[in-house]
Amino acid sequence: MRTLIVNGTVVNADGRLDADVAIENGRFQSIVPKSGGGIVPGPDDRVIDATGCLVVPGGVDAHVHMQLDTGTTVSSDTFLSGSTAAAHGGTTTIIDFSEQRTGGNVLQSFEKRMAEAEGQCVIDWGLHQVLGGVDEQALIDTRSLIEREGVASIKLFMAYPGRLYSDDGQILRALQMCADTGMMAMVHAENGLAIDVLVEQAVAAGNITPDFHSRTRPPELEAEAVHRAGVLARVAGNAPLYIVHLSSSHALREVVEARSRGTNIFAETCPQYLHLSLEDHLGQGWPNGAAYICSTPLRSKHDHHQADLWEGLRVDQLAVVSTDHCPFCLREQKLANGESFNVVPNGIGGVEHRMDLVYQGVVAGHISEERWVEVCATAPARLFGLPQKGAIREGLDADLVVYDPAAKQTLSQATHHMNLDHSAYEGMDITGKVRTVLSHGEVIVDGGQFFGAAGRGRYLRRAVSQHIR
Ligand code: URP
Ligand code: ZN
Ligand code: ZN
C-alpha cells in the first residue's frame, strides 16, 4: 500500500516546497510539487492530510544515554521507554553509546550494549563506542568495529578523572586512529583535573548546593579543553573532531578559531543550554535544583551564552543539536548519595522535546525552518554516516514528521513519555507540536497516540562520515 502525505509544506535543509509525498516499501517514492498538480490519490492509497503543517525528515538524535550504568545508578529510561519518548517528539533515529571503562575490553563492552538494546527500540538506533581507557588493544579493537559492527565514531573524555578520563597522550593516540580511519572522535571537552580541584575546594568550604556544580565547572575550563582537543586533532593528522554538549560562548569561540585554522572540527549544543540557565534553575536548592545538574553545566544567563549559541546555530558554527538525554529521577536517583552537588549523577532528560525546543528558535526568529531541520536531522545524519536519513528525498528511509507550527502546548512531567519523575522544562509554554510520526513509512505516533512496538527499530550500521571522506 502506498502512503501519501498531502497538502503540507515539505521542509528539507536546502529549501521548502508545497508538495505531496508518496511513500512505498518504507522509502520515499516521490515528492511532487503542488504547482505541478501534486499527487492524485488512488483508491488503495492511505492519505495523511498535512494541511497547515510542515512535513520534515524524522529527527536524528546523535547523543543519548538510555539505561546508562554510572556505577551507582542506571539512567531511568530503558531503550524501550526512551525510544518511545523520542518517537513522540518526532525523533526517529537515536545514537547511544557502548562504554569501555578504564581496563575494560572494547569488544565485550560492545556486545553487552548490543544485548541490552536489541529487540527494544521502537525507532532506528545506532551506537558510538566510548573509550575510557585508550591502550593498544582498545585501539585495535575499535578499528575493527567499523567493518564488524558499523560503528564509525568514538567518544573520549577530557573530564571525569578516574572513571572515563583520558590524558592528552591517550587522546592523541585515539585521534591518530581517527585521522587514519576517518572515524569521528566525539570529545567531552572539560578540563577534568582542574575541575576536580575546584570541586574539592568547594566541598571543603561547605559550598555544596546544586549551583556549585556550575560554579566549579567554569566556561574557561570548557574552552581550554576545546582548544586542546582541536590542537591534538590537528597534530594527529586532522582527525574528524566533534565537540559534544557545547555550552558556552567561550567554547564556541574556540571552535570558530579552530575552524579558521582548518581543523576538522564540528560541535553540537543541546536544548538545555539554549533554554535553561544557572539563575533560573540551580538557585532552587535541594531537591529541585539537583534536576539541572549536568555536564557540561548550565551557564549564567547574564553572560550571553544562549544568544551566542543560537547565533552559532544560525551561521553553522554549531552543526547539530542533540539532547545528551541522561535522565535520573529526583529523589531515588539524583539524591540517593546525599545532598552535595558532587555526588549527584549528571544528566538531564529531554529526548522527547528536542524538535520542539529547537523549533522555538524558529518561533523567536533565531533560525529558519530549514536550519531547524538541518541541525536536528540532516547534519547529524551526514556527520554520523547515515546517508539514508535526514532528508525527504526519493529513495531514502521514509522517516517523517508532520509538524503543526501553530499548535500550542505546555511541557510537563504529567504529559511526557520519558520515564522521569520531573521535567526540566515543567510549565514551559511553547508553539509547535508533533502531529504524526512515520518510521520506515509506518505511522508510529498520531495525535499523541502511539502505534509502534518494541523491537521494530533497526540497528543502523554506519559508515564513515560523508563530511569527512
Ligand atoms: O551530564 C551529563 N552530560 N551526563 C551524561 C554523560 C556525559 O558526560 O555525556
Ligand atoms: Zn559528556
Ligand atoms: Zn552524554
From TrEMBL:
Listed cofactors: Zn(2+)
Signal peptide: none
DNA repair listed as a keyword: no
Pfam families noted in UniProt: Amidohydro_1
Annotated keywords: Hydrolase, Metal-binding
Domain Amidohydrolase-related: 54-443
Keyword Cytoplasm belongs to the record: no
Record InterPro entries: Amidohydro-rel, Hydantoinase/dihydroPyrase, Metal-dep_hydrolase_composite, Metal_Hydrolase, Metallo-dep_Hydrolases_sf
UniProt GO MF annotations: hydrolase activity, acting on carbon-nitrogen (but not peptide) bonds, in cyclic amides; metal ion binding
GO CC annotation, single: cytosol
UniProt similarity note: Belongs to the metallo-dependent hydrolases superfamily. Hydantoinase/dihydropyrimidinase family.
PANTHER family reported in the protein's UniProt record: COLLAPSIN RESPONSE MEDIATOR PROTEIN, HYDRANTOINASE/DIHYDROPYRIMIDINASE FAMILY MEMBER
Protein name: Unannotated protein
Species: freshwater metagenome
